[in-house]
Specification:
The complex is a heterotetramer, with two copies of chain A (334 residues) and two copies of chain B (220 residues).
Chain A lengths: L10 H12 L4 E3 L5 E4 L9 E8 L16 E7 L5 H10 L6 E6 L2 H16 L4 E6 L20 H13 L4 H13 L1 E9 L17 E4 L10 E4 L3 H15 L7 E8 L5 H17 L3 E8 L8 E9 L2 H8 L2 E2 L4 E2 L3
Parallel strand pairs in A: 3-4, 3-5, 5-6, 10-11
Antiparallel strand pairs in A: 1-2, 2-4, 7-8, 7-12, 8-9, 10-12, 13-14
Helix pairs in contact in A: 2-3, 4-5, 6-7
Chain B lengths: L7 E3 H4 L2 H23 L4 H19 L4 H15 L4 H14 L6 E3 H19 L9 H16 L4 H18 L23 H21 L2
Antiparallel strand pairs in B: 1-2
Helix pairs in contact in B: 2-3, 2-9, 3-4, 4-5, 5-6, 6-7, 7-8, 7-9, 8-9
Classes of the chains: A alpha/beta (334), B mainly alpha (220).
Bound molecules: adenosine-5'-diphosphate (2 copies) and magnesium ion (4 copies).
One magnesium ion (MG) binds next to loops of chain B.
């Protein structure tokens, strides 16, 4: 296996050790080896923002801890939910006396571990409220929204909620903003090649050369169609059709767009994809006011990309423009 | 009072059963992963083996512990060190089983029934799996039902445990014909039919070891 | 070919179109389609910083245009030097009346096109001075330094020179700082898999599964050894041996370190690699004062990583800490 | 004065030779890439074809142009639109050849010699390749030497051009035994021996087309 690792079982821990050495100005260790917090602790009275999820999605999740974003993160094994204990410790690390918002993605393991952790925190008297991202419109029909997976749209949720907390919002407001951000976000991914978890040593799904999987999940979960590889224009069309038909976007709408590579796709190809996403939006009278194009939410070395679109109101627009600084995202403010 | 009276076992004497649970999971870890690999991601044995091995070390360090203390340590270890679905599911399973023995220092048939009920409720409360979804619930539900029925029929604690064990094994065997509705295997839909469920397999091992341990001690 | 492109011949142009749509606040078009400039034009009297090179290395080269970095960039076809005309137009776009520093990498095509462009600019009366990066210590022995390729260490050169220009340095000072930065930088890459130029449709070199190429170049140029894949620790050791033996680093030295993925390597593995680089430096009493770990200088979807180490003096240390903002690198300042 | 006097050609009449250069490169583009593919990255034909085709379009749009005007357009197009090594090398080659015809409106043997000398100097000034490095210099140097020698021997312009053509072809053939010292092929070291050099091949085509065009017009 041509990978830069030591013991395949220790990959998640080894990576955390490295990121702490590389970025001590952004991330700090806690007493729990799988929990990191923002290096610059925020003042008392701020709502704490916590996220967490499996490793292998870097810069997600730990790359969205920092000023104007999350305060603490729980890191799992590759593609596996963090433990209940990790989430619980992350809650404690993000407790500044105003409660904690846990903003994570809709996966069975994460749901269960967060649920247990919220129970444990309640015993300590710490109020934790949750928003679970379900932005992947390809993962279930709209009528079964609660079955949809959370993917790169989570970044919009963290950004908005982090800014709201920064602005002094209380727990109710932060939760409401996070929920609004994710409710107004739709995402779709296209997979072009599989990925290999080091401990497994071989891919646990396959995408044939010349084929693409539309609607693939962040761990290779099956999509809605396997078909011959399309042009970038065609891929953008397929993804945007799904996203735009799912919610009623109207001419005159402002949106935020995030195009993320899944790991191995050259960044220049993400720019190409974005050009078509931009054109499709503008043809419909929709204006992309915030644009993020890069590797934001990956799946190890999978090839492919995801597109996320968030419909904005004045509040979300303001919150997305709010300054933020982390490994995965820096916004300088307008 | 002796360890076993024929219809109850002292919780202190039952503590070491935890090592039997650890032993069977660690021993069968390869088989559990193999079963998971047929429909899931093939890591059930790895997840369980890691958690139970860690719990075993903590228990050995603890030295003396009662059955509920041991179950609590096991549950706590799973919650603390095993992510994914199994950590919280088995974690809360063992934690809540331990709590069901709060008010006693001996385990008899009614306590066992209460313990099983609490464990099942914890799993279902957290994971929402229904019977037929092809999970460990498909072992727990028939096991509980069989134990309760045996009790209603006036069977002894030991005989009821034997009945439960058989029901658990039948429940496991029956998962072969089910289509997975939750967990990773559910992605496969119809293709998940025809193989055992990994969680159901580990749950059967756990219930059997528990039953065997108690039966041994009932007449010790 | 499982890639996100339209016409394989148009990949470079299509990507430029996309990046301009996505980041109009950072990059602006010029009259020449292959030349981009910083969106926020800097004041008169500032030394202009220009770079350029083949496409497919994103975020390099265009991702290092922005505040505190380069002012304009010339973009070539994938892995091919920009034209002389492109460099010439980039010089004009970065002409604020104080001369232009062209800071690029040591490749035959780039050398020739820059040389022609400098001649063309001289005819307009525009003074352009050049520094050619040759930081790849694996590409030729130290005695033949002028044959060495420029790789990710170029980023240190752009960063230092951009900051010096920002501070009001004149052309001579900017050139001196750029030269000092690159002279004090050594880089080595390890390749773990090949990459495919879309127009070619298949890789034009190969790395066998289980093998790695130590000292590989940014376009797959042969390295110094092909050997079985090592652990992350082993790879760091091989790379650092080469870098540290090339220049006399001494205990007590301060350095800047850049670990860049080559495209497809998961970012978490770069963190693992960094942890060993950090350890090796500290064992020798060398302190990594600036650390950059991520995908800074890639080779399409090649797997692997490069490590660059720059020995710092007080001036380089200050210049690297100077604020900068571009697609590829943001430094908030201390 | 007529187009050809036997020992000189009017630059206006020689302009259309540019279309012959374009035609041969576009026609042979596949073969040039094939040669480059044996030791380099296989794109020499693509690079040359693209540049010469673009120059052809610009020349057609220009309508009337003299030989140096045409060469300048070709050189300028290569510098503007072809990156890599070939754009600047052939770009400056043609640009400097055009400049060598600045002070005349007819081309005779001394002017041709001056033109060839200027082109070679431009290529070597920019690319630093020496004879034997397995580049187009290995065609240009023997071509120039042969032309100059023929002139010294008192041969006519037309005969000198024929001698030059033969020398260019021999120079190309001789690159087969060379080991590449510059350019991408130099990575291969010894393995680059045994095949022709791509740039030498395109250069031979260019010199031949130029010679043929002039010979045709000398007696027109
Ligand atoms: N919601 C649930 N409720 C009960 N059991 C579940 C649930 N989801 C999954 N399981 C059980 O988990 C088992 C798989 O466990 P494991 O392989 O360790 O975790 P993962 O699926 O995360 O890889 C399944 O065989 C099933 O019995
Ligand atoms: N420094 C140089 N001087 C003269 N000719 C050169 C030099 N470098 C390369 N060449 C010529 O360039 C040819 C290759 O051209 P081409 O394939 O178009 O460019 P690239 O090598 O960038 O792919 C070689 O066959 C050689 O004749
Ligand atoms: Mg798993
Ligand atoms: Mg599993
Ligand atoms: Mg080339
Ligand atoms: Mg070539």
């Amino acid at each position: 296996m041509n990978r830069i690792i030591n013991d395949p079982e220790q990959v998640a821990d080894d990576a955390i050790r490295g990121v702490l050495l590389a970025y001590p100005d952004i991330l700090a260790a806690t007493d729990h080896p799988r929990v990191l917090r923002a290096a610059k602790r925020r003042g008392e009275g701020k709502v704490g923002i916590v996220t967490g999820g499996g490793s292998g999605h870097e810069p997600a999740f730990l790359g969205f801890v920092g000023a104007g974003l999350c305060d603490a993160v729980a890191c799992g094994e590759i593609f596996a939910s963090p433990t209940a204990k990790s989430f619980h410790e992350a809650f404690k690390a993000a407790d500044f006396g105003a409660g904690v918002a846990c903003l994570y993605g809709n996966y069975a393991g994460d749901n269960m571990n967060v649920k247990m952790a919220v129970k444990l925190a309640a015993k300590d008297g710490l109020e934790v409220r949750t928003v679970v991202a379900n932005d992947d419109v390809a993962s279930a029909p709209r009528a079964e929204r609660d079955k949809r997976r959370g993917v790169a749209g989570e970044i919009m949720m963290w950004k908005a909620a982090g800014a709201c907390s920064d602005e002094g919002g209380d727990l109710g407001q932060v939760i409401a903003v996070a929920q609004k951000a994710i409710d107004n976000t739709g995402s779709v991914g296209i997979g072009l090649s599989a990925c290999t978890i080091p401990a497994a040593g071989k891919p646990n799904f396959t995408i044939a050369p010349g084929m693409m999987e539309v609607g693939i999940g962040h761990h290779g979960e099956p999509g809605i169609a396997v078909m011959p590889v399309e042009t970038a224009r065609g891929m953008a069309g397929l993804m945007m059709d799904r996203i735009l038909e799912d919610q009623t976007f109207a001419s005159g709408d402002d949106v935020a767009v995030l195009v993320s590579g899944l790991g191995a796709t050259p960044v220049m190809e993400l720019y190409i994809l974005y050009s078509h996403v931009d054109a499709i939006l503008r043809e419909r009278g929709i204006t992309p006011r915030h644009r993020f194009v890069g590797n934001y939410f990956t799946s190890l070395e999978m090839m492919g990309a995801s597109v996320s679109v968030t419909r904005l109101d004045g509040e979300l627009d303001r919150l997305l423009a709010h300054p933020a600084h982390s490994l995965g995202l820096t916004v300088l403010g307008r | 009072m002796s360890a076993g009276t024929g219809d109850s076992v002292s919780l202190a004497a039952a503590g070491p059963i935890l090592f039997d649970l650890v032993a069977v999971i660690v021993r069968e870890q390869g088989r559990l992963s193999e079963i998971d690999g047929q429909t899931g991601d093939g890591d059930h044995g790895v997840n369980m083996g890691k958690g139970f091995r860690m719990a075993g070390e903590r228990l050995r360090a603890q030295g003396e512990f009662t059955l509920p203390q041991g179950l609590a340590t096991l549950g706590d270890t799973l919650l603390s060190d095993i992510g994914g679905s199994m950590g919280p599911l088995y974690g809360t399973f063992f934690t809540d089983m331990a709590e069901a023995l709060d008010d006693t220092d001996r385990i008899d048939a009614p306590h066992f029934a209460a313990m099983l009920k609490a464990g099942l409720a914890a799993v279902q409360g957290l994971g929402d799996a229904k019977p037929g979804d092809k999970t460990l619930v498909d072992v727990l539900v028939p096991a509980r039902d069989a134990f309760d029925a045996a009790q209603r029929e006036g069977k002894s604690f030991a005989d009821s445990l034997a009945v439960m064990k058989a029901a658990a094994e039948a429940g496991l065997e029956a998962t072969r014909d089910l289509v997975a509705k939750v967990g990773r295997a559910s992605r496969l839909g119809e293709r998940s039919r025809g193989t055992l469920d990994a969680g159901a397999a580990s749950c059967t091992m756990i219930l059997s070891a528990l039953a065997d341990g108690l039966v041994q001690r009932l007449h010790a």
